[in-house]
Amino acid sequence: xxxxxxxxxxxxxxxxxxxxxxxxxxxxxxxxxxxxxxxxxxxxxxxxxxxxxxxxxxxxxxxxxxxxxxxxxxxxxxxxxxxxxxxxxxxxxxxxxxxxxxxxxxxxxxxxxxxxxxxxxxxxxxxxxxxxxxxxxxxxxxxxxxxxxxxxxxxxxxxxxxxxxxxxxxxxxxxxxxxxxxxxxxxxxxxxxxxxxxxxxxxxxxxxxxxxxxxxxxxxxxxxxxxxxxxxxxxxxxxxxxxxxxxxxxxxxxxxxxxxxxxxxxxxxxxxxxxxxxxxxxxxxxxxxxxxxxxxxxxxxxxxxxxxxxxxxxxxxxxxxxxxxxxxxxxxxxxxxxxxxxxxxxxxxxxxxxxxxxxxxxxxxxxxxxxxxxxxxxxxxxxxxxxxxxxxxxxxxxxxxxxxxxxxxxxxxxxxxxxxxxxxxxxxxxxxxxxxxxxxxxxxxxxxxxxxxxxxxxxxxxxxxxxxxxxxxxxxxxxxxxxxxxxxxxxxxxxxxxxxxxxxxxxxxxxxxxxxxxxxxxxxxxxxxxxxxxxxxxxxxxxxxxxxxxxxxxxxxxxxxxxxxxxxxxxxxxxxxxxxxxxxxxxxxxxxxxxxxxxxxxxxxxxxxxxxxxxxxxxxxxxxxxxxxxxxxxxxxxxxxxxxxxxxxxxxxxxxxxxxxxxxxxxxxxxxxxxxxxxxxxxxxxxxxxxxxxxxxxxxxxxxxxxxxxxxxxxxxxxxxxxxxxxxxxxxxxxxxxxxxxxxxxxxxxxxxxxxxxxxxxxxxxx
Length: 767
Description:
six-stranded mixed sheet, Ig_sub2, Immunoglobulin_dom, membrane
């Protein structure tokens, strides 16, 4: 390729060369390798005419060099030690300073030829080269032709020089020719062939690693080391690093260093780098360097648990952290529980620790845990750590165990509180309503009991509480009804304090002060059950008795709420019948006669009847309360009254009062006839002193037939004189109620003892 360059004048050549060669900058900081010294020529031409003198100056990065300079001529050490050397002989010259290595050789020729080709020195890779074709007598030359490897590439017509771009060490040969005009005509002159001396701009880089044998996981710094001569220190270089065939980092960079944050064992391979000028005119690469990364085995494996101490509550999150004190590269962590073959978890990563989480732990997660770490050298185990899982108590269940279906005052009941789940120990609290009854501890968990002796105040709602320090739980409420046995009732007659007369309504009021409802009250007159009344909400009950005859006799009542009957004291009600006319002696005689006759028959029948009942043990029936059920003896109270004129009335329930005036009809069954005569006596007629009423009672037992009874007339008998009432009482049959039968025991005895003339005789009602 031929290039033509403009010619330069003689005055421009030295100025331009000095500008090119004397623009020197401070030396670039180099690597640990000592930079080369370099030689500067004055004048800066590689070829000169013989007899000329060239001055050589040895320089390094600390130019100019100060003493201790070594000069070499064709590899022969010269004695000259100064920084400058003047030469006139052709040959290769080198120098060395104390702070540099040996310079590249500079070949300088001194020729006696008529035409020479000169090249500028020094020339570095990538620089432009200046060539000058010089004759012995320059004024005789008008045209100069330049050749490269025999090919003409430039022509000049003056004494200037030409410029070659971007010189390289390609060993090309250059020469020039000219035509000289003389006395004898024109002739051709040719110069000696010239090889341009191109110095290396920078040596091939050297890749170094720091540290040279890194430990796995540690950072590594790669350096691409080369240097520029001081006179080319302003040249900008770029670098690129490679691992195998892959570029590292961000391709080309201005820095000659590359920082690898962490290198691993799999990164063990060859590395190399490249350096080039910004203009891409010069590019060189380093040799490959092998980097071997060392792996450190794991050691001191440790297991930590969150929360600290390993004490968890069911539902918490368990975090297991496995760590190693030393170890490089990829580490495989695994977690295990003692006694199980299955691995709980496994992680492989480049770190010294790893976490494994068990969310929402259960009771079955309790145990001893450990972890293992391995980076190919074999697993290393940690120590065992115990994990405990405490279970909060579940909602307890309260049960009440009583000795019978219905709890009664005085019973001892067991309050049993049980939580089906919960870590021991568990403290149980027992409550009645909002009051604390007591507490009991269950060291092994499950249930605890509390014994309670019942009183009347213990009815209500019961509950319990379980607590094992992880939160208390309350049971549902359980209602307990404590049944209170009835107390001994009190019978009162209303209206109280007045004299009842025939036709009045007498209220029998029975009330027990204590006792759980409902309470059933029974009312008795002698051995007769008058009726019953239910008090569903407790308290007392009343029975209204319509008085159709003189109600003299013993009254009582019983109270029962299923826990046994309690009977009241006997209340005796007496009537005194006032006399309307004087009883004549004849009347007295008739009455006494009748009483004597009837008395004998009635007495015999009653004695026989009484004996029969005693032998049979009395009449009983089921399902009815009676005075015989009362265990305590009754006390008697009497109400002294005077009756009005008697009238006929309809008997109340369970009682028949039928006046009969025929005592002679025989029948199939025993009839008891009672003659009650109320006779007004004076002191003269009676032995007993005092003007008071006497009641004569004649009781007889006579056999009658149904026909006779049917034919008996029933008449109302009134007269002004003494009043006599005949009351027909039916025979007691085995199908009577128990209450009726049981009440007879005491009523019969009292009745038999009351058939005497006493100051106030009871008016009895009989079946």
